[in-house]
Amino acid sequence: MPDDALIHDATAGIERLLEIMRRLRDPETGCPWDIEQDFASIAPYTIEEAYEVADAIERSDWTELEGELGDLLLQTVYHTQMGEEAGHFTFQSVVRAISDKMVARHPHVFGEDSRDKSAEDQTRDWERIKAAERAGKAQGGTLDGVAPNLPALLRALKLQKRAARVGFDWPDASHVIDKIREESAELVEARDTLGPDEIEEEFGDLLFVMANLGRHLGLDPEQALRRANAKFTRRFEGVEARLAAMGKTPAQSDLAEMDALWDAVKADEKAG
C-alpha cells in the first residue's frame, strides 16, 4: 500500500502536490479520468485557468486569486507529471530551466551589468537577450517564436511589436486611424460584392489594425476588450432588471424599448 503520510501533510508544500499528481496518474491505483488525459486534452484547462487568474486580478478578489493561482499551479504540475512519464522532462528540470533563464535575462541583478538603467534600457537589453536565445534555437526570423496558438488578439499584438522592432511600423497613431478607414471601406465593399471568405478576410484585417491602434495608443487591446465586455454585461443586466420590474423579459420586449432602457442605464451610470 502506498504511504499516505505525505498526501495528508499540510505543511509539505510543493512536494505534497507533486505526490498527489503522481498518485492521481498511477496506472494501477489512480483516478481513471486523470490517467486518460494527455497534453492536448489538458491544454484547454490550462488556458482557462490562466484567464481565471486574470479575472480575479481584474476584480481585486485576492481570496479568489489565491485559489486560482493554485489551480494554475496544478496545471504546471499536471503537464510536468505527464512529461516525466513520457521521458521528456520533470518538474525539477522545468524549474531549473526557468531559473536559469531568469538569471541569464537579468545580468543587471545577478551578473556584472549595471543596474543604473532606465526601464526602456532594460527592455532593450531583455529583447536583445531573447533575440540571442531565438538565434540559438535557429529562430532567425523576426516573427519566429510567436506562438501560433495564442489568443488571436494577443498574437496580433505580439506580431506587431516584433515587426515594429525592425522598423516595420507606422510613425504615429494618425496613420493607423487612416488605415482603419481604409479597411472599413474594404469591409463594406466585400459585404456588398464578395463572398463569405472575402468578408471574413476583410473583417480580420480590420481587427488586426484595431489591435495596432491600441498599441500605438499605449493600450492593451485584450484588456480594453475585456473592459468593454464587462461594461456590456453590466448594462444589459441593468436592462433586464428594469424589464423585470415591469414584469417582462427581454423576449417579451422589443429593440426600441430595450434601447431606451439601455440609454437610461447608461445615463444612471454616468450620473453616479
TrEMBL record:
Presence of keyword Translocase: no
The NTP pyrophosphohydrolase MazG-like domain, residue ranges: 37-110, 177-236
GO molecular function, one term: nucleoside triphosphate diphosphatase activity
InterPro entries: MazG-like_dom, NTP-PPase_MazG-like_C, NTP-PPase_MazG-like_N, NTP_PyrPHydrolase_MazG
SUPFAM superfamilies: all-alpha NTP pyrophosphatases (SSF101386)
Keyword Hydrolase: yes
Keywords: Hydrolase
Enzyme Commission number(s) from the entry: 3.6.1.9
Pfam family, one: MazG
PANTHER family in alphabetical order: NUCLEOSIDE TRIPHOSPHATE PYROPHOSPHOHYDROLASE
NCBIfam families tied to this protein: mazG, PRK09562.1
Protein name per the record: Nucleoside triphosphate pyrophosphohydrolase
Originating organism: Arenibacterium halophilum
